[in-house]
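[job 0412] stage=fold_complex status=start
inputs:
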Amino acid sequence: MQTINKILVVFIFACLGNTYGQSGEFVVQGIVQDSITSETIEGASVILKQDTRFLAFGYTDAKGVFKLSIPEFQENLVLVANSMGFAKQEISLLKNQQSYSVKLAPQVESLDEVLLQPDEKIVIKTDTLRYKVSAFTNKTEQTVEDVLRNIPGVEIDGDGNIKAQGQYIKKILIEGDDLADNNYKIISKNLDAQVLDEVEVISNYEENPVLKKFLNSDAKVLNLKLKEDRKTVLFGTNTAGIGNRERSKLESNLGLIKEKIKFLNLGKWNNTGEWADEQLSNYVSENSSGFNDFDKDFSIKLDPQVYLQESTIMLDERNYIQNKSFSIIF
Amino acid sequence: MIRLTLLICTFLFSFYGFSQNKTGLVYYGEIQSMGAGAPVGPDLNAILVFDNNRSLYITRMDSLEGEHIREQRNFEGTARISRTVTTNEIGFRHYNDFKKGIFTSRDIGFSYIKDHTPKIDWNISSETKAIGKFTANKATAHFRGRDYTAWFTPEIPLPIGPWKMQGLPGLILEAYDTNKEIYWYFKSIEYPTDKSYLLKPIEHDGEWMSTEDFKNHMIESLKRALISGRMSAESANIRGIYVNNKTQNLMLRSYIEGFADDQ
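[job 0412] stage=fold_complex status=done
writing structure:
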């Protein structure tokens, strides 16, 4: 066996003479062997990489031989060889060497990775599509919005508006409770991705279960289910700033979710001339109207609590408003 | 004594052989939502059993779902779609003997197809993402009417994957086409697995079709279905609009592979 290998290596070197000198093309070839028994390994993967870029790849043939070619030699080329039952081997390539003998060390391999249980899947009930979040994340997500981006069928436009199956959603519920009403971006932009367990896309959403029977709503909402151990969550963003001439700014956007208690609290105070009501201006409280089961037209718009001083001077409003807005939603 | 030595030798040899070629099992989910524009179709269980030489992909099998399924289900994508979801005892199977380069399938209409392992011209990008504890690399390719994205892991250096998605320097964990109308996603892996008995070639006594035969068969069935659909619509006095669509586009609305006869 050893002699055959030697002959083979010599043979490869002999072949080298032919390929070398051809216009620009860089050819790497060689043999992959077991480092202990020196037996050649069939079907070992060989990848030619430059940093993270894959330039060429292949598998060794029945004699353990591989041959890869790229248009021209480049710096930092690495040859990666791997095979089931062996440890991966990386070799830095040299410009003037085109033949390599790669020796892989045997390694007992055992893999047992579970993302979803075999029978778990995207659950589809009549009106509900349920996604297991762990199957759609890569752990780099920070907010709920980042997670939603990965979920098939969910899109987010530039303004943070969310579409599910091509239709804008109406609300985001947390564990079935409506905390933010139409202003769901408070949740999608602030709640930590880590706490999510499942996302449900509910079609034909109807708040009133009685009306659901005879109203054919086409509204879509998202329902976020939280991880069992993360049912108590305090989330939000706080910004505070202070400047010269008594200018200061405080923004607080805080939510607490506990099994029985859920609240969302938005506060913004500044005297730097920023509108404080912007986060509430599109906040339409439908729960107080009594006609919440039809459409927005029936709802009463609650004015955000903004205190303005009367003034006759035609100044830009930025220069005179001192703004406070505060809301607590249970 | 000689017998005993022989026995020990045989035992050792078989053990060595076994340790070199273990069987693994990957669980996937397969969502087919052709024509829906989003992955909103039936989500069925699928498995890929493999060793160093071959892989077998099975889906739509009764035992994988835990029951026999034959029902009409409604899905909502860009349009409301009603689909018949069925499973059968044997399931759809794709057996890839990648060492020999032979690919056999038991596919739709219980067609048995035998051909070379399809060569897919993958374009590997340097984009990566984590799928469980694996680092997966992104690769894209055009294959039989669809543009696919596949996420494979070089950590499992075998050219295998779900369905006919294969030929990358690693196991394909996730793959989908442009609108995820066909979507395979990774659930779990067992390596080695105790279910190695699942890995066996597709059994068939009769004739095997070639991919070309299968393509013609699919195009014929599609055209027959179109004609009978129009006939039954006309007899019910429903007038439709005749859409002069290419066979491939029509095919892609109901089947993974967009076979074409009129390019």
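[job 0412] summary: Residues 12-21, 275-321, 326-330 of chain A have pLDDT under 50 and may be disordered.
[job 0412] exit 0
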